[in-house]
Amino acid sequence: MAGELAMIVAKGLAPLTATGFLTQLTDAVVQDVYHHIQVPSLRVVIEESDKNELVPVAFLASKNIYCGFGHFGHQLLYYLGGIIVDHAHRGIGRPLLQDELEKTKATYLGLHTQNRKMLSVAEKLADFDLNVAEANAEQVGTSRQNRQYSDLPGRGTYLIHSQRYGRSSLYGDLVKFYEQGMNIPGLDPQSGDAVVFVGRIK
Fold first, then answer.
1. What is the mean pLDDT of residues 75-81?
2. CATH number for the domain including 165?
3. What's the pLDDT at 72?
């Protein structure tokens, strides 16, 4: 999706995105959504509001990547570029993602995140593999110079994309971010760092 249509879609999804990332609706948010939907696959969940309007309640932006996995040969990796779910519809994110994985018949799941809840969903759907994450980091957008490692309490060693989101958090209101239990222990969101998750789908 590109051009004028993509901008219309981005403007429609931006309010949901701003709420999900605990920030104000700005042109920067619209541009960020526009950038994220420049992918081969965009799935939007809509429902009718009490004002008889169709409103988005969730969306997933993704792409399929064929990656080399050693003696397993080339396998399909489903890369989740972004997912937002309206607060009132919490709980539908995992089934939506699971449905996507089943439809694409992917073998691996990949994503970047600063959010503990998103990381937990990924860990329920796939088994993180540090070696596989390292081998395919470039494919999912983490260059060698941006790679770091961190021992995350209760999780072991994870690959980290240093300053993935610049030098600041992806989330606007960090007080709410911590209050809602979104933080990943061992990861400083204010540094802009993000966990690089790549794992074989269960």
1. 95
2. 3.40.630.30
3. 59
**Helix H segments across 62-128?**
93-104, 116-125
- Amino acid identity for residue 119 in this structure: L
- Is 3 exposed, middle or buried, given 0-12, 13-18 or 19+ CB atoms closer than 10 A? exposed
Q: Token digits for 103? A: 């439809």
Which structural domain, as residue segments, surrounds residue 112? Answer: 3-201
Of 131, 114, 123, the C-alpha closest to 166 is 114
141-148 contact pairs (CB < 8 A, 24+) = 141/112, 142/112, 142/196, 147/196, 148/193
HSE (CB half, 13 Å, CA atoms) of 179? 5
Rounded distance between C-alpha atoms, residue 153 and residue 132, angstroms: 21
What total of structural domains would you count in the chain?
Answer: 1
Mean pLDDT of 120-142: 95
- CA 191 – CA 131 distance, rounded (Å): 24
Q: How far is CA 112 from CA 71, 75, 148, 177, 189, in A?
A: 25, 19, 13, 17, 12
